[in-house]
Amino acid sequence: MVPSHRAAEETKLFDLDPLGSVLEDDYIASGISAEVAYGLLEKEYKPDITFDEGKKLIVRTLKSVARRNVLIGRYADVAYVRMVDGKKESGIEVVKLL
Fold first, then answer.
1. Torsion angle, CA of 70/64/91/49, rounded to 10 degrees?
2. Which of 10, 17, 39, 66 is the S-S candidate for 97 at Cβ 3.0 to 4.6 Å?
3. pTM for this model (two decimals)
């Protein structure tokens, strides 16, 4: 699941599915519990979401999915790449879901 963060520089997010479809969207969820994730994303995503708000929304969404589907697991890696003051910043955070 990946939300798009639109800042001063226009960012775009594309969903590439295994059959070759390419769709542009503000957020994307895929996999076994995508329907659960989309329910929360549709309710809480807003176009002017900040980076930190987006990370919190991702974690809340993953926790919601994990409570409904034991196959998700107990932990998730939340990875990001973004531009800060003209420099690329990236990281990975391990989040406990259950």
1. 160
2. 66
3. 0.79
